[in-house]
Amino acid sequence: MCTIDDLRNAIINGITKSDAEKFMVECDFKDLARVANELTRKITGDTATVVNNVVINYSNICVAQCPICAFYRPRGHPEAYVRTPEEITKGVLEAKARFGVTELHINGGFNPDLGIEYFEEVFRSVKRAAPDVIIKGPTAAEIDFYARVWRMSTREVLERFKAAGLDVLSGGGAEILNEEVRRVITPYKFNAETWLRIQEEAHRVGLMSNATMLYGHIEKPNHIVEHVFAIKEVQERTHGILLFIPIKFVPWNTKLYRDGLVKGPAPAEYDVKVIAISRLILGDTIRRIGAYWVSTGKRLASTLLMAGANDLVGTMINEQVLRQAGSKESVTLGELAHIAREAGLRLFLRDTFHRIITEVGSA
Fold it and tell me: Which N-terminal stretch is annotated as signal sequence (predicted)?
C-alpha cells in the first residue's frame, strides 16, 4: 500500500527508483496528483506557461518507418514532400503576422536526400526574414541520422546548425529510454545512450533543449521511472533542459496499433500517474513539465495541470505528426488560458527560454 505520507516523505528524503516504481504501481492516482500538485505550486506558484509557436515539418520522407509513427511517407510516395527554405520562411512570416508566434518548431523525417546545406539555408532564411523568431528543431534522432549520412560528428552538425541560426534543440526522439522497448517501437533508430549523449553535446556547444517521453504504448512503470531519472541525471550535469514533455501515444493509424500491440490510448488515470511521478522525481531540477494538450486532449490537459504539470507546451499551429496518428485537437490562446484557469492557474505567454512575455486572458 501507499499513503500520502509515504509520498511526502519520499520528497523530503529523496525519491529513489524503487520508491517511484512502487508509487506508480501501488498509489492511487488522486494521491499522486495531490502531492505532485503541492510540490509544483511550491516551485512555480499559481502559474502555467505556454509559447506561441508554429510547427513546420521540412519533410515527411523517412527511412526509419517506425511502428509508432503515422507521419512518415517512403520515397516516391504520392504524399511525400520536401519543403523549400522559401516555403518554410513564408510559413513563419504568415504565422507571425496572423498569430504573433515567437517560435518556429521545425522537425521532419530521416530523409537521406537532404544535405547539411539545405538545413543551413532554412535556418539562415528564417533568421534573415524574422530575426526575432526563435528556431527550435531538429531532434537528437535527426542529428544522429544526418551526421551518419553526411559522415560528420554529431558535435560538428550541432555547431554548424547553431552557426546557421538554430537556437534550441527539440526534445523529440527520446521515446522511452530503454532498449527493450525501443527494439519494438523504434527498431531502426539509435539507442537511448546516443540520445542522452547528443542532448549533453548540444548543451555543451551552447544549445539548450527540451526533453520528451512517449508513453502509453508497450512500456511498463519501471520504464517510465528509468526514463525520467535518466533525464534528471542529464539536467543535473548540464542544466540545459528547458522543459520536460511527456507525450501520450496516439495509436490510431500506426503499425503498432494495426499489429495489435496497442489496443487504444492509455486511460486518463495513467496519464495522471505519469505526470505526477515525473514531478516527484524531477522536483525543481526541471521547473516546467508539459501537459501536452495535442495528445491528451484539452480537458485532460487541465487535469494534468493539477497533477504536476505547469506548462501547456505551445499553441502548436499547424502540428501534423500527431494529427496524422489521429489527434484532432486545435486550440487558441484564449482556450489555453481557460484550461489553466480551470486548474486554478493563471496562464502566462513565454518565449522558448521561458522568459515571461505577458499574461493571457481567457476566451
Answer: none
